Amino acid sequence: MNRRVVYTRGGLPADVLTVIDEPGPAAPERGQVLIRTTAFTVHPGDLQTIEAYPGTAAQPVPSGLEATGVVEAIGPGTRVAPDVKVGGRVTVFPQPGAWAQWIVADAEVVVAVPDELSDEVAAQMLANPLTTVMLRREAEEHLAFGYDGLLVQTAAGSSVGRLVTGVSQFHNLALVNVVRSDRGAAELRKRFPDVPAVSTERPGWADEVRKAAGRRPVSVAFDPIGGKLAESLLDLLTPGGKLVSYGLIAEEPIPVHASTLLNKSLTLRGMNIGRWLSEASAERRASDIATAKQIALGLKDQFEVAATYGLGELANAVGHAVRPGKVGLVLVRPW
Ligand SMILES: NC(=O)c1ccc[n+]([C@@H]2O[C@H](COP(=O)([O-])OP(=O)(O)OC[C@H]3O[C@@H](n4cnc5c(N)ncnc54)[C@H](OP(=O)(O)O)[C@@H]3O)[C@@H](O)[C@H]2O)c1
Questions:
Q1: Checking CA distances to 62, which of 18, 167, 231, 302 falls within 20 to 30 Å?
Q2: pLDDT 10s per residue in the chain (335 long)?
Q3: Are residues 115 and 245 both part of a single domain?
Q4: How far apart are CA 240 and CA 143, in angstroms?
């Protein structure tokens, strides 16, 4: 028997997600790895995909892209990544249908978990660290980044935001964090005392960012929100600056007049981890995964878990995943 999370129509995840019982998995074929999962996390992006699903599906759609577990079997003649072996701990990403007790994964997306990492960290070891790697790569395309250029990021208390902050500190990159609440800013300052944190609750927050930047040009902004906040970030950028948009939290569009881009030669760029598997070469992906593992090993304390639920509490788990002020991702233990 295999218990799997599915949906058949778009809508509020707490309403449309169900757990079904299906027959146990068949033996893996060539190119496949059979994994007994031990944990998966509920990413905001997973929930957005479910909400946005158009109409009704003919067949239940399996949910989730990332999970961690133990290798039960490897298909005959299958090439696996280094250290992936039967009985070994692994994480998969991006593997459609990862939210299940058993996954027959494509060997290409199966990554061994270092012994030093707990299941809680292992369950978050790929998607968000790889997002951080891709964001940093976007920033590095700006000539001033890593020199005098400064980075600003919104939703800085998010799981991705905390990794971006940790990586920026490690590489000595100047950063100003922006969050939506005074409480969140205070929490971030406590966590990262050397990094300024500004709250958009305060009317003069943009000036606070300028003040924190000092004489440094605001070269790059990372933003998973969009809407009016992204417009404010474009305003904050110095000429030649780059706004990397990587999320859809705001429902309204980004209001940008062409003159805003023209007058300061700004770049507005979208970044989506979904394109990583198809667009990055095998060598680049291997290098990115090695970096993601280093991020997980070096910043273990930033991989917090907001709460842990069982499969039978799925509605509570997805409700918790979008609760304001939570710190860390929501984890589900499927057994
Ligand atoms: N493009 C990609 O490839 C990619 C990959 C990974 C993640 N993402 C996106 O990155 C974002 C963060 O992901 P995560 O896994 O780090 O999430 P997370 O840990 O669940 O954090 C979500 C964060 O969003 C903030 N937030 C929610 N609604 C907001 C609003 N209306 N205004 C300002 N802040 C708001 C929350 O702030 P509070 O603390 O104040 O509640 C919280 O810090 C998500 O939007 C996700 O979809 C994109």
A1: 302
A2: 999 999 999 999 999 999 999 999 999 999 999 999 999 999 999 999 999 999 899 999 999 999 999 999 999 999 999 999 999 999 999 999 999 999 999 999 999 999 999 999 999 999 999 999 999 999 999 888 878 899 999 999 999 999 999 999 999 999 999 999 999 999 999 999 999 999 999 999 999 999 999 999 999 999 999 999 999 999 999 999 999 999 999 999 999 999 999 999 999 999 999 888 888 999 999 999 999 999 999 999 999 999 999 999 999 999 999 999 999 999 999 99
A3: no
A4: 9
Q: Flag whether 286 is in a domain.
A: no
Q: Which of 158, 244, 275 to mutate to test the pocket of ligand 1 (most atoms within 8 A of CB)?
A: 158
Instruction: Find the residues whose C-beta lies inside 6 A of ligand 1.
Output: 43-45, 127-128, 131, 155, 157-160, 179-181, 184, 224-225, 246-247, 249, 271-273, 324-325, 329
In terms of residue numbers, what domain contains 71? 2-124+303-333
Best probe residue, ligand 1, of 136, 232, 249, 304 (max atoms within 8 Å of C-beta): 249
pTM, to two decimals: 0.97
Considering the domain architecture, whether residues 119 and 10 belong to the same structural domain is answered as: yes
Q: Which residues contact 299 (CB under 8 A, 6 or more apart)?
A: 162, 163, 166, 167
Choosing from 274, 294, 323, the residue where a domain stops is 274
Same domain, 184 and 242: yes
